[in-house]
Specification:
By secondary structure, the protein is of the alpha/beta class. It contains 16 helices and 17 strands. The chain is globular, with a radius of gyration of 24 Å. This is Glucose-6-phosphate 1-dehydrogenase. It is an enzyme of class 1 (oxidoreductase).
């Protein structure tokens, strides 16, 4: 089955950080795929910018290598056309070099959509925006995309948002959280709001609890320097996990219009029960991986990788959060994320309450409560665990089976990467899947007190062996409530 593709308006996409990892691994392959599907108009240009001096031809060679490496089989005709769209300019984000050249190139087409994608260190977000403003490069259809992290805390996020906001209107600012571009995440909205089945049950009367797990099997790899200044709470919870929580917990928005959806997400963030020093201790667990094993064999611990022994940066976090409103009162949302865990998997598990009364005798076996599992990666899909009768004449025996829908199998189409959808949304000016400023502020307002408590705490993060599911305190966190993390489907 082919999906519908609507061509976007002609655009100039200016990628700052075009020689970096994100551009090569994600942005260029995503743009190539969009070109393949016929979504890019003939007049679409990609203006790659980075600090170093490079001939455009040399940059195109690099781009060719990375797209070949990350995409696999290519349509050579489309690929030739795709490479021809790319220009390269050496532009220094922190100095004047190259800005006149960029202004000249953009002035050739003042009427097309102009999108600045800032795939550079966040330290450059402010300086780049200031120079964009100073060179008068913002037209009415100009947008800017900023990558995470948006600040290190509420105060620095505010400063950054203020700087960007001096140059761009809020409706021109696209704060990207690539989790929101994943097919399954959007499917969560389809599941909830395009089916009559779930919404009546989507509340504390029928749902026991929700688990959101984003587990990585890799360690910090080459990013230890950056990671040590962030940690799992800032890097994953403040953005990705809280955004997922919002989509599970929000009220039905009035429409799919960007502000309707974001208004509802904001209400959830504001209703998150704040954690104080006492509750932080009881409801959060910080961990740091030690040496252990991964699929590739023995691996060293975080501190060895970092080359220091004094870091208290967490590579794992588990949190029991609650949402103080009518719909969710008393329903815990357990959040968990970490590096070097037993598997690479991102899942939302919605655990329903048990049936109120069983009509079956003991011979039938136990009856498990229903569970809806929304799998973000790998193998995006949705699965509902239900009870059925075991086939055959052997009496009434009950068995739990999955009603399973793997998107790859169900639709037999390539599963597009989140960046494909999100970049095209930027060009279209659709902000539904991007974070509004007040959402970022509200997320930090919930996260900041946790960071402060941890900073005051005397104890270090709890060690966990690489290749496990994190520190035992994380298991205790949920088992104290008589529940358990679901790892059986992984
Ligand atoms: P990276 O590999 O370190 O690349 C940095 C880029 O910034 C390079 O193209 C570099 O150009 C350019 N740059 C550095 N100094 C510059 C200057 N003074 N003027 C102009 N350009 C300059 O970084 P990355 O991993 O791609 O990450 C980019 C951003 O995306 C970061 O904010 C990161 O947090 C975010 N992000 C990345 C990922 C990912 O998977 N990589 C995922 C989510 C978010 P030169 O090569 O010419 O120095």
């Amino acid at each position: 089955m082919a999906s519908r593709v609507i061509e976007v308006d002609p655009f100039d996409l200016i990628v700052f950080g075009a020689t970096g990892d994100l551009a090569h691994r994600k942005l260029l392959p995503a743009l190539y795929h969009r070109d393949c599907d016929g979504q890019l108009p003939d007049e679409a240009r990609i203006i790659a910018c980075a600090r170093r001096d490079l001939e455009p031809g040399k940059y195109r060679e690099w781009a060719e290598e990375s797209v070949r490496e990350h995409v696999g089989d290519l349509d050579e005709t489309v690929f030739k056309r795709f490479l021809e769209r790319i220009d390269y300019l050496a532009v220094d984000a922190g100095a004047d070099k190259g800005w006149q050249d960029l202004a000249g190139v953009l002035a050739e087409r003042p009427d097309v959509v102009r999108a600045f994608y800032l795939a550079v260190s966040p330290d450059f977000f402010g300086p780049i925006c200031e120079r964009i403003g100073a060179h008068d490069l913002v037209t009415d259809t100009t947008r800017v995309v900023i990558e995470k992290p948006i600040g290190k805390d509420g105060a620095s996020a505010k400063k950054l948002n203020d700087t960007v906001g001096e140059v761009f209107r809020e409706d021109q600012i696209f704060r990207i959280d690539h989790y929101l571009g994943k097919e399954t995440v959007q499917n969560l909205m389809a599941l909830r709001f395009a089916n009559a089945l779930f919404e009546p049950l989507w509340n504390s009367a029928h749902i026991d609890h929700v688990q959101i797990t984003v587990a990585e099997s890799l360690g910090v790899e080459g990013r230890a320097g950056y990671y040590d200044t962030a940690g799992a709470l800032r890097d994953m919870v403040q953005n990705h996990l809280l955004q997922l929580l919002c989509l599970v917990a929000m009220e039905p928005p009035e429409s799919m219009d960007a502000d309707s959806v974001r208004d509802e997400k904001l209400k959830v963030l504001k209703a998150l029960m704040p954690l104080d020093p006492e509750t932080v201790e009881k409801r959060t667990v910080r961990g740091q991986y030690r040496a252990g094993a991964s699929a590739g064999g023995a691996v060293s611990g975080y501190l060895e990788e970092l080359g220091r022994t004094d870091s208290v940066t967490e590579t794992f976090v588990a949190i029991k959060s609650e949402i103080a409103n009518w719909r969710w009162s008393g329903v815990p949302f357990y959040l968990r994320t970490g590096k070097r865990l037993a598997a690479r998997v991102s899942e939302i598990v919605v655990q329903f309450r048990p049936i109120p009364h069983s009509i079956f005798d003991g011979e039938a076996g136990s009856i498990n409560a229903n569970r809806l599992v929304i799998r973000l990666q790998p193998n995006e899909g949705v699965r509902m665990q239900i009870m059925i009768k075991d086939p055959g004449p052997g009496g009434m025996r009950l068995r739990e089976v999955p009603l399973d829908m793997s998107f790859a199998e169900a639709f037999k189409v390539r599963n597009p990467d989140a960046y494909e959808r999100l970049i095209m949304d930027v060009i279209r000016g659709n902000q539904t899947l991007f974070m509004r400023r007040d959402e970022v502020d509200a997320a930090w307002a919930w996260v900041d007190p946790i960071l402060e408590c941890w900073a005051q705490a005397k104890d270090a993060p709890k060690g966990y062996t690489s290749g496990t599911w994190g520190p035992s305190a994380s298991i205790a966190l949920i088992e104290r409530d008589g529940r358990t993390w679901f790892e059986d489907m992984i």
